[in-house]
Known about the structure:
Elements (H helix, E strand, L loop, with lengths): L76 E2 L40 E2 L34 H4 L41 E6 L2 E6 L9 E9 L5 E10 L6 H19 L6 H18 L5 H6 L7 E9 L4 E6 L3 E6 L7 E2 L6 H7 L5 H6 L5 E2 L3 E2 L8 E6 L4 E6 L1 H4 L5 H7 L8 H14 L6 E8 L10
Parallel strand pairs: 1-13
Antiparallel strand pairs: 2-11, 3-4, 4-15, 5-6, 6-7, 7-8, 7-12, 8-13, 9-10, 9-14, 14-15
Amino acid sequence: MSQMPQQAAVSKCPSCEEPLEPGDRFCGACGYDLSVVPARPEDSPTLAIHGVVPAPDDVDWPVARDSDGHGHPAPVHAAAELPGTDSGGSPLPPPPPAAPPSAPVAPAAPAGAPAPGVRFDRPGEPEEYPLQAPDPRLTAEPAPVPGQAPAPEPAAASRQSAPAAPDAAEKVCVACRAGRVDDDGYCENCGHAQPRERDHMEQESGPIAAVSDRGLRHHRNEDAFSVGCTALPDGAPASVAIVCDGVSSATRPDDASLAASRAAGETLLGALPRGTHPQQAMHDAILAASQAVNALADEPATAREQAPHQNAPACTLVGAVVTAGLLVVGWVGDSRVYWVPADRTTPPARLTEDDSWAAQMVAAGLMNEAEAYADERAHAITGWLGADAYELEPHTASFKPDRPGVVVVCTDGLWNYAESAEEMAEAVPLDAAARPLHGARVLVGHALDGGGHDNVTVALLPFPAPSQGAGSA
């Protein structure tokens, strides 16, 4: 998470948000004592992925660090070496008793203009979106009109109750599941308009799968993902998932997320077979994604003249690499990775920390998590990929889980409805590691049932990576 580093590096007063100069000890506007702002901890998760955790007084805890940004990944820590804390620094609670999952209330959408160094990846409430025609995915096939005469046709053909099955290469209507789809996007049989290609996307690659959906309130899907499998030089399988969320306040957020996901996925799938350490490969993949998004800002001068106040294309990114014994995560922004063990009697964990206003408030000790995420500024992001981003800070961390489970890589369109690790574990089906596509569909459905206020994207990776079926995808 992009936390406040030290008093001298805090750019704004935590109390009145007035700009500060390096070395200030008190705010010149309100007199706030900057010495009470805590120093920034090492920038990486310190969550236990199970294992026996000794008492804090018995061991000098190591810190899971980022790569140093100069081609040298940080050491890998076993799960038992990391203290069991949540993102606020509190000890992980014991696993809750089994209970039917319930959808949490969606947090209020943020409002107000972004402050310097902050972007909003969640626009306001639905009045900002034009009214759309009914989603064909949610519309039942129309019933026949009583008394309507059928069109004249040969006697033999009049007894047919369904049109001829379309060829395998042709698109089939999502409403009637029988008619061909014209080039203009309408079904020849029932007349329904078809969803756009990115409104709902599914992909399964070996043991991993991902699903992305436009949601129920947005007029387009600004999320994108990339999944694939490859093999390490020793033949061991490796699974890769990248999930990107376009920043809605920027121009062309859908193009930004697509470019970033493709660039990061291709970089990882190309680097791992060459023997690059997975954590270094993830770091390089985030840089490649950043360059791909930056390139989108190189528009003709005429385009900039027509829209001089538009922000550059931007998105967030989160990814995971799973090998036989190693889990690597990387991120910029507020999309997340969760660890859900196969044995649900052991606690799950969140493995990333948001680059967001709310996370900064919690890290600075100015608010607890409940207060911070209830604020209308909670989803203002402080880190993103884009030409107008501040200094890029790719976050990476490595883990060695000591038991099987499933890795959940998702945008805030999902975790808004299952924010804590325990809530996410309740929403993940018990057979998600064996049926990842089904599990991803269930999680997307969980978000849609909760209100579907945002685009929803989730990828599921079983851990450890299966030994069979390795190959390039």
